[in-house]
Amino acid sequence: MHQLFKIGFLDINMQFNIGFLSSNMQICHGKDSSSKTGRKNILFRKIVIAGVSATMMMGATSAFADFKAESPQCIAPSNPGGGWDFICRTTAKYLFDLGIIEDSMQVTNMSGGGGGVAFAHVTKERDDDNNLIVAASMSTSARIAQGIYENATQDDVHFLATFGAEYGAIAVRADSPYQTLADMMDDILKDPRSVGIAGGSSVGSFDHIKPMLVAREAGMEDVTQLKYVSFDGGGEAMTGLLSGATEALSGDFSEMLGFLESGDIRIVGIMAPERLKNYPDIPTAKELGYDVVGANWRGLYMPAGSSDEAKEFWSNAIKTLTENPEFQAELEAAAIAPFNNFGDDMYNFVAGSIADVEKLSREIGIIK
């Protein structure tokens, strides 16, 4: 059975040209035979560079001129240590370091309901808050698609942007008897309740869907029988694995990376189309015979009732982050690839993601 899991039009192999100036721009630095001409060339270069810098600053200033963030806050809809927490803390750090916001951004962890507690808090209590942004991902759109956020629609919040995406993976403890993904699937096929799989979000989430797809590829007819153990965030799910509460962990690669490098876990399969360049020893689920590719986007939303000026400010702020080399390096270190959507592109992307998850959830029996 062939199963290729792609969300919307997500392709995280896309390359983005980041930065204001092309690296191919050539400015003559050679020594002129005439010192007078050489001085003119130096002066010309300084004028050009100054002019470009002024243009960049004017563009940035005009982008943020109509709104000023005051006591900004980012809500991570999980406990510390997971992907949503990473989104907020990384965003908050670079917004402040780059001078985009004058006040440091407060990061608040608000776990519960697979992000539902935070979603309800925003829509019911802070719908017009101009200074609030919230971490979002594939799991956010999945819960809207599956009706887990009660009566929620895409338009209940304003989806700001995606700025990255990463592949899902399945991990076991370093001392686990499961040496391969096939070993684990064999036991699951014999007794679906014998292998507990931890995930950092609720039943029906992307962390739940990923092993269900692998199990279906392995030949499991009713994948809803899979033993999935939900936790409030990737950090708690990792604790569940390491403590022995579960036999495996389903999550995103960035959440596992530190524990992989410390030797606490092994990754038995990553849901990428090919092996990762920086981690060539990790096999893909696809090469092991489970034709599943699952990528999770990372981004942010804000209250739907916030002002147009605030929405433009935060959209421009995130765009500025994506153009910053240090921010991109931080994402790369976490194995998160560039994947940028703003404005209408973002709206259409989330709409496509919700439609895809609803279709897939019906196919595998999560919703009827």
Automatic annotation (TrEMBL):
- UniProt cross-references to Gene3D superfamilies, sorted A to Z: Bordetella uptake gene, domain 1, Periplasmic binding protein-like II
Q: Which family does it belong to?
A: Belongs to the UPF0065 (bug) family.
In Pfam terms, one family for this protein is TctC
Organism of origin is Epibacterium ulvae
Listed name of the protein = Putative tricarboxylic transport membrane protein
Q: InterPro entries from the xrefs?
A: BUG, Bug_dom1
